[in-house]
Amino acid sequence: MNTETVYADRREAGVVMTSNCLNLMFQHKCFKNACLVAVMLPALPAADVLYRVTPSVNRESLVIEMTFVAAKPTVELQMPSWSPGIYSFQNSWETLHNLTATGEDGSRLSVAHTKGDTWTIAAGGHKRITVRYERPVQKPSFDSDQAASDGDAVHYGAQPVYLYIVDRKSEPCILELAIPSDWRIAVGLGSTRPIGGHPTFAAKNYDELADNPVTMGSFLEQHYKELDKEHILAFRGPARNWVDPQKTLEMARFVTKIETNFFGGAPYEKYVWHLWVYEGPTLAGGTEHASSVEMHLSTEEGPNTIQGMAHEFFHLWNAKRIRPRSLGPFDYTQLPHTGALWWIEGVTDYYSVLLPYRYGAWNREAFLARALDQIRQVRGNPARLEVSPYDSSYKISGDSPNHYKVNYYPTGWILGMMFDIELRSRTGGRRSLDDVGRALWNLSKNDPPGFAEDEIRRQLVHFGGLDMGSLYDQWVLSPGDLPIEQELAKVGLRIEEQQGQSGGASQIRERPGMTPAQRQLLEGWLRTKVSSRMPPPSETSVRVAAAKYDPSTFERYTGRYEIANNVLFTVSRGARSLLAGFEDGDKAQLTPISPSTFFYARRNAQIEFTTDLQGEVTGILWKQNGQQRNVPRIGPFIHSLHLHADPDAAFTQQVRAVLQALGEGVHSDVQIAGLSPGALADYSSSGPVRGLVNIRSLEYIDSQSVAGRNIQRHRGEVSRISYYKLVTEKKIRYLMVYLTSDGLVTDFDYVED
Ligand SMILES: [Zn+2]
Fold first, then answer.
1. What is the pTM of this model?
2. Residue 354 near residue 477, CB atoms below 8 Å
3. Distance 314 CA to ligand 1 centre (A)
């Protein structure tokens, strides 16, 4: 997790989908006509495959009933082994159970599970078959949360749920959601005539059905319209009540405006942002679809959020519609092969930084800092000298599902920038990568099969001349170092090493003696197009006037708070007021409105520090979106503690022994004196803790009671937190050790301060 790195899908490699705007529109027109005639027809048009989805009462599984006309004596059904946007085998068929098939008279048909992903049904002369099966919905976990349900909302999509009929994936599909009438639904498919009194949606074929995740149940919803199209934000997840929905909407709207402006139009009927909201620094995570996205959303929204949204939204063109031919139509039984993921992912990422910059979301310095970060990532990997950008995606296999040795995200970002500069330089600024992107979109907008593998090369040559072809062959098809400095020099820039700084700090800056021609190219490349019609969202959606207080009186509020289980939020002293934010994230200013109450404009939240009878700060009363919660205080920063004599040296020795055991690795069946049962269970499955190997000394600093604050670690109620200085063979670090009321260690955190 690196909040600095430029956004990339956690589920790598967004590839292909066959849906397309004109077809979608055509389909909807068809359905309008169908509605007029349908009054006299039976509920299910003969050619459609109906999927009725019924969530279980406990919302933990789905019952899928699939009804279709049997065209042959035997019918083969398959579950996709992978799904577009998630580029690895998932073997979802393993989670499917209780599959049965019946004829139109309700008689049971014979079903054979012929191989892993395939079931074969003997139609036995029946014309219409109903297949019923159950499938669990994903529960939240660190790895799956962008695609998971929560206690109130059922979400599914990125993991395959629907079986398809072999050789009949092109038939139209109908989705009926058999849900209670008070449930909400967010799905990118267009509505059609209800079946069974339930909300019902239409997909032109199986690929489109499978590409549309569903969120249903109780979740928060926001809407906006752009270009006459409906856009829905569906917030679910543990922190859905603690995000600023208006600010999120403004970010999504900004991204929608600038990217539809870039490509000229919105090639979908509606678009859904399926958002999993959590407390914690911005994650890189999203799975793109043709008319929706599944994304993580951190409550602390900032530039990374805009970039993540810009990346996923750009994919609705570049990946879902602009796509290489070798990726479609889908064969769900094997992973597709293309060498174009540097373009599909990396160039998408380049534009997810360039377009928000162009429309005013951040300044030139920030844009160039992002570019430098990509350069560092590319140059930090020695495999670039052996594996070409093309092969980094072409050679993806079940064994190396994300990329083959070289990461095509930063590599594609840099290639996008280099081709952009090169095109501008060759044409005196008349042509750019924008032309290539729009030309590819023109080729793709009427939903043809994907383009040939060399189409990107062809377009580069078309706009920049024959020599662009040999540059493509060198940069994309061959391994080696990319001549980044040479390209930057064409727009008068260079990478400058900062003198006297450690860690290779550097910056991209203007070269001394830049020529007017270089200046003109630079200004053309990094021009801005800020317009009042597309205002960049501000960091804060609400402003509150600050009351005047002596900042020194705020010192007692500084320290750590636990905003969600195991997620630390810090309050520290800034120059004029307090600063707040996640322990590992950016900090933003708090505006004082009373001696103990502050406005946290970044989240449109009011935070009031609470104290006990002794005047000790015990937590925050957090008020946001008309709700409130208690955020317990963990304790002060190390620098504000005073060194105390150790009141119980024997206990410190026991803590040291526990830490030593964690460093060596614990086993759930071997009790460790002084370690809580929950911590023993969790640490035995996570393996030895590297930072605790070879402890030289453990020095007591201080200890504070947190009893009654409802802080839990590894299922143990924390009663006291002790602070230590830990010296190992390798490092000196500070530790916070979480203790139960029985004096058992139930967790620890390393802290810098
Ligand atoms: Zn992506």
1. 0.90
2. no
3. 9
